[in-house]
Amino acid sequence: MMQALRQATRDLLGLEHPAETPERHLAATMGWLCRAQDVGPDDGAARMYHLKTGWGASYPETTGYIIPTFLDYARYTGDDTFAERALRMADWEISVQMPSGAVQGGTIADPPTPAVFNTGQVIFGWRAAHRENGAERYREALVRAADWLCAVQDEDGAFRRDLSAFCDAPVDTYAYNVRTAWALLLADGVAGAGKYRDAGARKLAFTRSLTRENGWTAKNCLSDPVQPLLHTIAYTLQGMLECAANLEDETALAYVTTACRHLLATQGRDGALRGRYDQHWRPTVRWRCLTGEAQTAIVWFRLAEVTGDASWVAPARALCDALRRTQALTGNPDAVGGVLGAHPVWGAYGAYEYLNWAAKFFADALLLELGFPGAARAG
After folding, report:
1. Which terminal residue of the chain, N or C, has fewer Cβ atoms less than 10 Å from its own Cβ?
2. Is 247 helix (H, G, I), strand (E, B) or coil?
């Protein structure tokens, strides 16, 4: 009890935890994600653990892209129990897929409403599950989801309908949906015959039209597009990078590289970034968005791979090291191995919460740091 209290006090004050090896932190992160799957009555992953209210309900969106991480970790460790867990998640996603083929916004405890971004993220999971064992049910679910996305996409490539009932940014489109474009490109390799590839390419082109020469993409936040979260900035950068690599789009790749150089200029000596940025790439808050940091580390590792510029590796490793120092490896068993939404814990993103998607992205970043070739390339 005293150990858990000391841990909570440390997080409230924004103090650091002792950092250990990437392997140790990766194992702890995956252990926490297993706990998130086990705490509920179904095979989805709980959205979060809140320090005050406890565990949340299973979250279809993020469970979807956690699936590839579990399959990667199974291959990395040789432990097939993680692959078994991943397939249970994929089957659960089929059981809650909406009749239209869409995936709902919010958690399973919320009234189901279709959401473009969430649907794209679960496609990553069904694709990974299909690649794992070839089961037709995963391909069928993926096709239904991708067909629905094509049906609600506008001619100019944008998604303006069925965005989310859980985001309140006053914009007509969310730029970070370019990550859904990446999902469509991958879906095309399973069953699209060019249809989904065209939809993904049109969405990438639309996102490019929102992007300035300094790499800044407008209309890009859950709540405040004037100073977007690093989380949604990184969603957009990863989506653009992977679409650019898939489509050999040099313009999109140049935008991502330029944006990342601006972010790199704000990296502190401690390796950390900040939680929100403005259009001139100036930090607007002092707290950290840990989810966004993990995502940015992934983008930097992948930039090194895609461009051949190894100078991105050192700052990506520094980001991972900064994240390790925010993660508790002892104490409250519901928190050990989890990744907070913000640091300090009261920061204005996922305050007082350990988020399952923050853990997923940290695991992907650590796998890349350890040189595992499959990590983060499939969602």
Report:
1. N
2. helix
